[in-house]
Each structure stands twice: as structure tokens, then as C-alpha cells.
Amino acid sequence: MEKQKPSKNSILVWRIRATLILFGTAFIIGALFVFFPIISSIIATLIIIAYILAITIYCPKLYKHTNFYLVGNNLTIEQGFFVRRKCMLSPERIQYIITLSGPIQRHLGVCSLSFMTAGSTQTLQNITPEDALKIKTALDLSKKEVRSERKKS
Fold first, then answer.
1. pTM of the entire predicted model
2. Could you give the count of Cα atoms lying within 13 Å of 38 in the half-sphere of its Cβ?
């Protein structure tokens, strides 16, 4: 499998999440404005600047630096813009796989795959359900091959 990117709707999902966080923050700052008007105004300005930077620069850059691909039996996930992380998951280490999709993701036709291992959980976010099914199928087949080879030995 060649390097693939998450769905194009990933950027929209991240932007919607940032907007929802902004609304929650605006509510809190509005309540603080009654008691500390100058400090609240400064904080609100900084938050709006951070929001604009996040939706215009960070979300597209994060999409650009997120990849996943299968190499042999291993799934490799590359994520991150500021802190880049590369994770290789072998089928033997994966205990189970969960497909998750929240209301925003369902509406936009994407989902997330969480891989549970003995030591950690790795998540591949905002991929199409078709890609999720392909990955699950490929990893399940690889896991069955490894088990059959162990039984033969």
C-alpha cells in the first residue's frame, strides 16, 4: 500500500472542533469580562488570533504531514506538524481495533481507527470508512498468517 492521506474532510473536522472550542472559551471569557474587563479583552484578542492561525495555517499543515501506509504486514502512521511522530504497528502487537466516529465525523463521512496494544493506543484519525475496512482486513489477514505460521513451527 502506498502512502495515503486521511480524507480531505479532515481539515474541516479540525476546523469545526476549533470553532466549538472557541465558542466554549468565549462563553467563559464573557463571564470573566464582568469582573476583569481589560484582562478579558486581552485574553479574548489572543484567543481569536490563535484561532485564526489554527484554522488557516495549522490545520492544512497538519493534514499535509499526516500519512499512513502498510509495509509488509506493518501499518505505519506518520502524524504531526510541530512534533512529528512515526509509529509502526505490527499485527502481532495489536489486541483489537475500534472504529470510532463522532457526530461531526459521521456527517462528513469519515471515521477514526484506534489500535489497542498491550502498552498503548494509537489512533488514525479522519479516514474514509472504506480505508478503515481495508486496513482492518489487511491486518486481520496478516495476523491469521502469523498465527498459522506459529502453529506449523
1. 0.83
2. 0
Spatial strand order of the sheet with 85-89 comes to: 67-71, 74-79, 85-89
CB-based contact 113:123 (threshold 8 Å): yes
pLDDT digits (tens, 9 = 90+) for 2-24: 889 999 999 999 999 999 999 99
Cβ(1)–Cβ(138) under 8 Å? yes
Tell me which residue of 125, 130, 147, 127 sits closest to 73, measured CA to CA: 147
Is 137:113 a contact under the CB 8 Å cutoff? no
pLDDT for position 153: 65
- Contact 54/31 with Cβ under 8 angstroms? no
Residues forming beta bridges with residue 4, ordered by sequence position: 68
